[in-house]
Amino acid sequence: MLLAAVLNRLLVEDAAAKAELAQFAGRSIKISLPLVSETLVLMNDGRLAESKAEAEATLDLPISFFTHRMQDKTAAARHVRLSGDGELGSRIGHVLSGLRWDAAEELSKLIGDVATQRLVSIAGKVGGIPGAMGSKMVANLAEYLRDEAPLLAHKRDVNQFCNDVDELRDALARLEKRVSQLI
Length: 183
Hints:
By secondary structure, this protein is of the alpha+beta class. It has 9 helices and 5 strands. Helix 6 (103-111) crosses helix 7 (113-126).
């Protein structure tokens, strides 16, 4: 429900995207992000709603998509994994990729136009801070998920696990060979 709400919030400002999504009314798509995954159905008005139906297509956006998107949107697109109805997934993915969040507009609703304008001006003068902050936030989130709330594994642990599996496979093959010689 969270994902549908966020996307619908962005769609409020983009009538063209809503109209394009309305063409797919009744069709369902699963969108998987690093921390949330939802199956959504497209409504007649172009909005999205949570669905229990089986998804016709799946868009899987791994964390590598978000880290690459900050630097190069084209490179980020190569990290998107699409399954199911390819045409449906790619068309909806294309529409959703065009959605833009106007942070200044949202901020102005909270603190007012003048304060927002000053903050945007300061951020522009400092330059590069939003991108750097975004990169740091993604890195910190990955580190948190790896170290504090072990949802992600360290690369060295994954490599060790793979090596252990390889050793076990080799030991099993040797054991099978010995057993076959005994028989």
